[in-house]
């Protein structure tokens, strides 16, 4: 009798090239995304070793991390960014890799353009020099972040040694409240698992809640998987996936799509497949979440408070809480809804898609950004920006007092012009709140687009449900 397999097992087994004596497996890598920050060393390695890119058409290069969101000129933004972008152009041209330049209508954040171009497909392996490559697992793809040397290996050999992970099923069941989003679900899961709680696992998100999610929501969920320590997050492809992929430029067309669909339809964990760990989440109990500390696991319902010192488990936990509160400018036990902010950032590969902008615009419409608050909306791609403008979302944001920007990673990573000053506090839809992530000494609170838009109106962290009741 054939052993029942998880989705992760199926994807892994379908890409094995060879088992190696050191406990690793040589996996075939179908597709690779390259941006300006992760690959300069990779291309230099190819030059030094006299290697070519094995299959150039299985790669896409695009500038996104360091780009200016105020201009599409190659010569705008900080000097280092201009150098990085110019180097990416040179490398892509020299090695024959398809390139989306800044003025290309397909430009955007790698984890946004991959799916919207149909470059991300069910059943493939996909790598990128960025930890949030887990995003693409929303399509039932085995997608993971890699380092610069590994990027060079993928480009030269189309293979990569990897160590098999354990499997974790996260079952999420029940309907979500109107104002509870995939971002809230992700933060709740990460808080439940704790720091590094999913390290060493490949996570599969399952259950009725996930089945009802859009592809944008599933991408948000998988994007945040790395914040729990897991490099791989997966959702089994279904009709929602197939409808999203069909007709996109890099996806199979006509009869090839029908052939691919037959394979894609087999990509679900078998009945009886055994996971190494299973986590249960009741979606009906979830409320809007925000982060209060300096890791995504330091999060809580918006109705809650910063933990109290007397509630900490031990001395090391107490010391950690004291250090976090000092950095974040908070007091133990402080209600989260009392925390004032300076900035609002809506964007990133987590929440920069059209569905995210619609959610924020729904809250912002007819209202104004509070006095003294700087708020910006940065679409995840040029395509998202065009669609938002066609729907009039840009006009809603601008009328409310937001800055409407060009596509890019922007303030999520702050290696461009968009960053906070020391001590400034941001309500952010990005994925990380580490110390210095949005600028040296900056303080970041992670939340959904609707929650960020609510904070922009009140000037503090705000329960979107209460705000809407008062409207």
Question: Please, could you describe this protein's structure?
Answer:
The chain is of the alpha/beta class. Among the domains are: 7-164, Aconitase, domain 3, CATH 3.30.499.10; 304-470, Aconitase, domain 3 (2-Layer Sandwich). The chain contains 17 helices and 18 strands. It has a 5-stranded parallel β-sheet. Strands 4-3-5-6 form a 4-stranded parallel β-sheet. It starts with 6 loop residues before the first helix and ends with a helix. The model has no long low-confidence stretch (mean pLDDT 97).
Annotation keywords:
471 residues; alpha/beta; Aconitase, domain 3; five-stranded parallel beta sheet; 18 strands
CATH-defined architecture of the domain at 304-470: 2-Layer Sandwich
CATH topology of the domain at 304-470: Aconitase, domain 3
Number of helices: 17
First CA to last CA: what distance? 61 Å
Could you tell me the mean pLDDT?
97
Biggest sheet strand line-up = 16-15-14-17-18
Total DSSP E strands: 18
Major sheet size, sense and barrel closure = 5 strands, parallel
Helix coverage percent: 25-40%
List unreliable stretches of 5+ residues: none
Question: How much is the radius of gyration in Å?
Answer: 22 Å
Quaternary structure annotation: single chain
């Amino acid at each position: 009798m054939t052993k029942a397999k998880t989705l992760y097992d199926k994807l892994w087994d379908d890409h094995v090239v060879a088992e190696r004596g050191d406990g690793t497996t040589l996996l075939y890598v179908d597709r690779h995304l390259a941006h300006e920050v992760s690959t300069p060393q990779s291309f230099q390695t190819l030059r030094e070793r006299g290697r070519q890119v094995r299959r150039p058409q299985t790669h896409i290069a695009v500038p996104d991390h360091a780009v200016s969101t105020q201009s599409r000129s190659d010569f705008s933004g900080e000097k280092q960014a201009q150098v990085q972008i110019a180097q990416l152009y040179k490398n892509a041209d020299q090695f024959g890799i398809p390139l989306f330049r800044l003025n290309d209508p397909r430009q955007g954040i790698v984890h946004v353009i991959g799916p919207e171009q149909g470059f991300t497909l069910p059943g493939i392996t996909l790598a990128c020099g960025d930890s949030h490559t887990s995003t693409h697992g929303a399509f039932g793809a085995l997608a993971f972040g890699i380092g610069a040397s590994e990027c060079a290996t993928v480009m030269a050999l189309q293979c990569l040694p990897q160590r098999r992970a354990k499997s974790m099923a996260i079952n999420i069941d029940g309907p979500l409240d109107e104002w509870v989003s995939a971002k809230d679900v992700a933060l709740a899961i990460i808080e439940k698992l704790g720091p590094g709680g999913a390290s060493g696992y490949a996570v599969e998100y399952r259950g009725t809640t996930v089945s009802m999610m859009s592809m944008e929501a599933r991408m948000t969920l998988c994007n945040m998987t790395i914040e729990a320590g897991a490099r791989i997050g997966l959702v089994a492809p279904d009709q929602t996936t197939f409808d999203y992929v069909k007709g996109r430029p890099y996806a199979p067309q006509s009869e090839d799509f029908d052939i691919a669909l037959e394979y894609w339809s087999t990509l679900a964990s078998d009945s009886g497949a055994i996971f190494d760990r299973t986590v249960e989440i009741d979606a009906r109990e979830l409320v809007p979440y925000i982060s209060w500390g300096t890791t995504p696991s330091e999060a809580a319902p918006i109705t809650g408070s910063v933990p109290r010192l007397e509630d900490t488990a031990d001395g090391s936990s107490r010391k950690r809480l004291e250090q976090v509160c000092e950095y974040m400018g908070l007091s133990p036990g402080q209600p989260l809804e009392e925390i004032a902010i300076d900035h609002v950032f809506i964007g990133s590969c987590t929440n920069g898609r059209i569905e995210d902008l619609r959610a924020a615009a729904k809250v912002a419409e007819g209202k104004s950004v509070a006095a003294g608050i700087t708020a910006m909306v940065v679409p995840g791609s040029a395509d998202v920006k065009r669609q938002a403008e066609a729907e009039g979302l840009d006009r809603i944001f601008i009328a409310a007092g937001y800055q409407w920007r060009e596509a890019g990673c922007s303030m999520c990573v702050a290696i461009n012009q968009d960053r906070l000053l020391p001590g400034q506090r941001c309500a952010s839809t990005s994925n990380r709140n580490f110390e210095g992530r949005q600028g040296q000494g900056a303080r970041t609170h992670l939340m959904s687009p609707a929650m960020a838009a609510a904070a922009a109106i009140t000037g503090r962290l705000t329960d979107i449900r209460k705000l809407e009741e008062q409207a």
